[in-house]
Specification:
Blueprint lengths: L1 E3 L7 E4 L22 E3 L21 H15 L4 E6 L1 H12 L4 E7 L17 H13 L1 H13 L5 H13 L2 H13 L13 E8 L5 H10 L4 E8 L3 H4 L1 H14 L1
Helix pairs in contact: 1-2, 3-4, 3-6, 4-5
Length: 258
């Protein structure tokens, strides 16, 4: 865990998405360090975390990761925080805020998806067969899967170096833990948790995203009471890397008006 910025002011906690680590916020978090206490961390099994702390039973659901977020915020001993969660960490933040709303002042949900699987009347972006194939490929050829899927997730073909960075991030992860995390990420259904959120929220959606279609951002916004939806011009699933200035501007604007 890393903390920077003044001890006073509203703290901001940044949580990374699947296959990533806290370094994915390096173009975004510093923009808030003059006014906020900025905290970044690695989920268990990612980045510089202690892989020995991984408990397959605990992390068989996203609630295990949400419990970690609650523990981190409690350990900081700070006022209620602004939680910025990317991709699956958006739903982790939702679960954490439902469990302990007193710890959260705002949620910023970047490219959230409460259910990646399509359902009747709901488009999550993937069919059962597609998720099965994704998980089977990960298990059989993790490095090959990483090199293939990362550029698709990044969604910035004109900037191949970003896809390469995401590939490298995937490849640094423990394959077994990554496969478990993928299973939890792509098989979870947190739609029913959205109406339980009482914390104000900003939903940040990219204009084209292979992992979170526009309909998903609208769905999340409509099921979070009093939330705000911002659709970025950026494409892909990782605006924190591909369009950090646009993401920073959206978050700043929201917090300034909150």
């Amino acid at each position: 865990m890393s903390a920077r910025g003044p001890a006073t002011g509203v703290p901001m906690v940044f949580a990374h998405g699947f296959g990533c680590d806290q370094g994915m916020w390096r173009h975004v978090a510093p923009a808030f360090e003059t006014t906020h206490r900025v905290v970044t961390f690695d989920h268990v099994g990612a980045g510089g975390s202690d892989a020995a702390a991984y408990d397959r039973q605990k992390y068989a659901t996203l609630q295990g990761y949400a419990d970690d977020v609650v523990e981190i915020i409690e350990a900081l001993g700070v006022p209620p925080v602004v939680f910025v969660g990317h991709s699956v960490s958006a739903m982790i933040g939702v679960l954490a805020s439902v469990a302990r709303p007193d710890l959260f002042r705002h949620l910023v949900l970047v490219a959230p998806n409460p259910r990646f699987l399509d359902d009747e009347g709901y488009r999550g972006g993937f069919t059962d067969a597609e998720v099965d194939e994704l998980l089977e490929t990960m298990e059989g050829n993790y490095l090959g899967w990483s090199a293939t899927i990362a550029p698709v997730i990044m969604g910035a073909p004109d900037r191949p170096e970003l896809g390469e960075e995401l590939t490298s991030s995937f490849c640094r992860a423990d394959p077994a833990i990554a496969r478990d995390f993928a299973q939890v990420t792509f098989r979870s259904d947190n739609r029913a948790d959205l109406p339980r959120v009482t914390v104000p929220a900003l939903v940040v959606q990219c204009s084209s995203d292979a992992l979170a279609p526009l309909e998903v951002g609208t769905y999340v916004h409509e099921h979070l009471s009093g939330s705000e939806l911002v659709v970025l011009a950026a494409t892909g699933h990782c605006p924190n890397l591909s369009a950090p200035a646009e993401l920073v501007a959206a978050v700043h604007d929201h917090l300034d008006r909150a």
